[in-house]
């Protein structure tokens, strides 16, 4: 192959600057097939070596595009010697990618950070230059990590140069990395390249080649050898896309090879020969082509210097070899490659899946094991494909049905609800979706897409009864149905659903697992069934690395009800991105909800809002309306806490309109909690009382009302402020008598706080308040503690005087201000002023507006509508509205009419 580049002066100059620049960075070369991207990569890599860089090469392989982290292995494997210098946590993340550690790979962020650490150590003594060709064939997980790393190389001695085809979609299309477009050669340079590579061409042939190639270097090199004396349309391919023309040209050469050499090329092509090697070291055993000199002579292969290994001359040769092979030839090649990879489970499974035609239980078992491995590694989509193939290769109907059911279950959690339904229908012996597996898949689809809990609860209950009569020992399908019925009952949130579920679970006796019992108890009625269950959840936290994503999510929900979510959150944050990208999307969205709830609890409200908006967007994209409504409910609660009353009520109304007709008690109670919170923030205590009393009657905690214990302070405070002191006291005593302090740390705090607020003597009030202050977990719940301090300080002011109250009111005011709880902050400031304290200049609402927010605020202040603002700023009216929701609390206003004055005050403050 001609290696001397012709032309490309601008591109080479930019690449030279890229190589010699001391700063770390990434660059994407994008262009059509054969335009010269690979040659430019090679040229840049050679320059990097001359400049003293260590060069590591990798390339995407079409046959491995579905194999999770196959592309990541190529870059990491040659650098693993440097991993010994890393900390244990980083090594564990990297080990998991290679299957050498416990658990599965973490999220893109965690993996990306681990890779960045490894690259930093590898480049400590010698700059590192990473070269990636054919990026469009990378598996999604690897491409996302490369994108993450590429955006964060600034300040390091590491560079990443990669090439992708412009005619094929790839994950790098949205990676936000700098790009250098590689266009065809101009006419003059094309002529020079042709004349150098094929001197002495007849004028007519030369003209035809230049016309056909249109400046594509690969075409200029390859077309002349096939002119055959034809004129004009000498190849008979005018109008055919250039990549296909070149493929046909390579095909003619491949056809001329002996059968043995073609077989060697096919095995090499299917196994990515020549990809990711450095000094003869590959990330996993690759097939090594032998006796292929004939292909070298035909211009299809090259010999790698230093190793004498055969490599493909161009990626297009590799894909042409595969496309030209017959199905039987490909299967034979895959069979031999499966033997090469017998120690690598997932790679072996990939080849066996393609090699096997007739039912084979041994192969099906291997595919099933690979699917389980992929699921734990964030590869749920790959797992569905392997399980489906395993079902096709099953030797009996029972195993086929079981594997199809497993595939449908994983597909449901991966957000592929339609695919899950089709997988169940593929079980022809069952014939309908009335089979237990069919009910399982249809149940998740009905729940996630439509929020249908009523009819789905009946169907799942019937399926459990049907399966119960034929099962004598714990069964995985039965367990999955039990867990689905638990989820349906939780979303229904009513007594009838839960009583029916518990009746069924009791009839199953030992067939229900301990974890499933734990979920049904805590999710249903934490007041009556949650005592003593915290230890089981804490013990489970030690096994998080080994849990499947849906099991991790269920434990996380259990931890939320017991206020132990902070223990699970670090692991949830490590794996959530992984699941949203290639894994269990539905579980990933639930993980985001859990992360958001913990962020709200610990006072990270800005982060919570970003998380809520993210899950809202993702849920809408996947058509999972249940998660859309749930996200709005949590965002409504957050808006209420922050004093964004209008937004809270708007979101509350949206949730109500969707959830109440469907009987989704969990969501309607969430909406009621948001309504009560917004009313309290606005000082409308009568409305707050009505919302809180609608969830549970004062003096009791309604069975299966999950928000009842969480709204304890709301009901008590609203009752006190509306002259219902007896009801408030009765409710606080009911919390104590129900044993709420023994269930969770948060419930202990709010129970002691309620007893302090309603105490009949000052001695009792002081004693209960002291329990709040002394509680070891008080710092984890800053909003609740601030509320209790405000109420206690107000009581002390009336009884002991102004000076005594300040010690409680001042930390309460500071906490509300720090959290961004506007309404509560104003109330605390008013109480402080009543004690004679000097007015404090609140910094709560002078947060700096971004440029975009300031522009929107200015336009709104001038009287423009959201639609008019959107037209000017190229935004949708809905986006403008969302920005205004964030702008108003920053400026301490609630209406558009107040914008102009607020902006003026902000400018005055900036001048002080």
TrEMBL record:
Keyword rRNA-binding set for record: no
Keyword Nucleotide-binding: yes
SUPFAM superfamilies noted in UniProt: C-terminal effector domain of the bipartite response regulators, P-loop containing nucleoside triphosphate hydrolases
HTH luxR-type domain span: 842-907
SMART domains: HTH_LUXR
Keywords: ATP-binding, Nucleotide-binding
Gene3D superfamilies, A to Z: Winged helix-like DNA-binding domain superfamily/Winged helix DNA-binding domain (1.10.10.10)
Pfam family, one: GerE
PANTHER family referenced in this protein's UniProt entry, alphabetically: TESTICULAR SOLUBLE ADENYLYL CYCLASE, TRANSCRIPTIONAL ACTIVATOR DOMAIN
UniProt-recorded name of the protein: LuxR family transcriptional regulator
